[in-house]
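Folds vary. Our protein:
___
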Amino acid sequence: MKNRLAVVIALICFNVAQLSAADSDTTGMRPFGGRFRFNGYSGGMLLHTGYVQSRTFTLHAADGAGVTRMRLRGAPLGIGGALRVRFGKHLRIGGEGCVSTLYGRHDSYQTLGWGGVLADCAWELERWTLFVGGTFGGGSVTNLVSLGSALDDYTLEQDNLLYRKYSFLALAPFFGAEYAVTDKVHLMIKSDYIVNLSNWQDDYVSGPRIYFGFMFCH
């Protein structure tokens, strides 16, 4: 989890550094011409929550006997960063990375980290910008389930923990809106749904996430 947070923080710092460098460029040059010419870029940070849940899965004791069936569900908490480069009036291409954690009982948690290349189409309506697109990349899941010291009337000793970690290909369609507080600072709200393309497990949590944050634009 610390490594994923470091990646997110590095991405945010990179966004700010790039924007600062752009402010110091007074040449006004554009590397592309025509319909899809370079038309500025934006980067920033987003916090998110939402509602996610897993399929029902069975926990087993060391001897193979079934212990209980359970389902993970609830509101995750997370942070992420994104960078978009705009071409022409509508096309934006860039990247994003996020970390999302669902907390449960007895210090249980599932942490989902993912990132990749994003592309979207944006339409400006006065101070509002509406957009729809998707992110393709990869992610990893770390799942720790603790049953505590007792389950119903049965006391558990060593067989009370589940720890799993696995990776997957990810596709996250999204839509949202930005509001221009100033020409260079936009507030953003968006929603996405992270689809596990390659390694769907019964304990993988999925559902809509809602993001709130800001973008620095140039």
Summary: The chain is about 10% helix and 60% strand.
